[in-house]
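Run folding on both entries below.
>entry_1
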Amino acid sequence: MILASALMLLAIAAPQAGQFVRLFPNPTGRNGYEEYVRAADEFRRLNLSLDIARLTEVRSREGWTRPTAASLAVRRRFAIKSAGVVRIALRGNSKPFYPIGTESGAATFPRIRPLRDLSLLLREASDVHFSDGRSGEGVRLLLGSLTVARRLGGEATVSFLLMGQEVSATVRRLEAHLPRLSISELSAVVAYATAALREPDPYRRSLAREKLVGSAEFEESVLEFTSGSINDALQSGGEPYFREVHLSALSMMPEQRREARDRARVLRNQYYASVLHELRIRPEATWSEIPEQGWPERVPKTTAELAEVLARMHAPRGLSFCGAIAVIHRTQLRLLRLHAEIVRYEKRTGKSIASLTALNLPWLIKDPLTNRPFLHARQGRRHALASQGARSTGKIKIGVFRPPQQLLEGRTAP
């Protein structure tokens, strides 16, 4: 439900024109985020979304590994038209990245939506380079697409889910090109995936970011309930339960309401700190099993109960779903790294491997979700790799992730 809601909001949220001037009235030139926003503005000015739609239509007819001369001409025109935007986005990747948003949740959509296009743009722009035999440049753009998606995915849990779709799509594209890469290009893929897996995960960064930037929204919401005066919006248009909470808070003394606000602030921070701590100490396979604070149900009668209700309204949500998605993305990176290592080994030695043990890299072939080797099978000259997965994910392969029904319903697999 979380992913469905995110995608629905993405579809209806209207992009804002000229975000750079609004977001960066005094640009520093030292923040990669500035370049991403500048590139997104240029993307919209050139109306590149229409060009990408045409490329997608062409690909749906003939595929993208062996394009016809006509479609290759279309892709070359797109590469020329988008070259400036590509340069700006890659320049952003070369700089440190400092998120600048002061909103969380659905409020991030107007800002994140156009930035999401940059990862897609870099992925599409790579096609013409692979078609023209410039695989090194194609790899550079695909790894650049991953960097954009992983960086922006750490803004909020909503952006983590949206950009995660781009991560999966780019990993899939990279894997399809592995057999045609040189040894040095394969080494670049292995090195990138290894470094990405060592970095703080975008999911953890998104939660830490929400804890920080969501505090202002929390304070505003708490004041609505505990200001000591009737809130017309809550009483006329709010949910019945929230109206009851508001009236209960009004019945308390001013010092009781202040105490509830202080306690709620501490509790909210504890909820976020607890989840972040669990993500650090838990095995990755159990990330989706971190307990979530339930929604409050009873109307508070005491200061302590009011504090708990207010804190739970702003506790981290969707932990089971988001935890499973994080596990899937990390596993897809491991599978990409392993597949690149297999192809690199075969090109170096001239021998095809029948078993993963031939790599003599036990740490690489071990799936941390199961503590057993990744699943491997030969399909002609290709290798099919997968993870048995965790209880919440089922079997994991490289590809665009489609959530299983038990995840959408908030359940784990039996």
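>entry_2
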Amino acid sequence: MTDDEIHGFLVEWLKATLNVAVIRAYQSGGEPAAEYVVVNFTGAEEVREFPSDVEFEDDQVQAFSIPLIEKDWTFSVHAYGEAPTDILRPLVSVVQVTQEKLSPFVIHDLSRIRNVPDFVNQEWRPRAQMDIVLRGLARDKVAIDVIEIVEFNLIRKGIE
């Protein structure tokens, strides 16, 4: 999966879990009228220095190496509405109970929920923020050169 697909995957999971409108950060268009959540992808990093394993794939034309790299994807999640901390609070409980709908990822870390109101158009607007860290395996194919192995027999002539 690409980073963009993982971002979309989390947005869809949050929609189903929180039962409010969930949008990606920096989308064009107006904001939803009611309570809503905005998800911003902030980055990804490798958990370990080296891949946990390497798989190989061959499609008869090209060979590929697929290192299995354990990664963390970090997202900043913002809730807007009259009680924004209450919108995000169910995530803490959901993570304790089950994560099967997030497969092949797990929520590795949830930050504390921060109450951080915004000052917009000369008025305070309620907002809450938390970070979500998803952990999973990245499987990116890399084309490799293959050295073909061919059997051959040497026959020496003239040596007795």
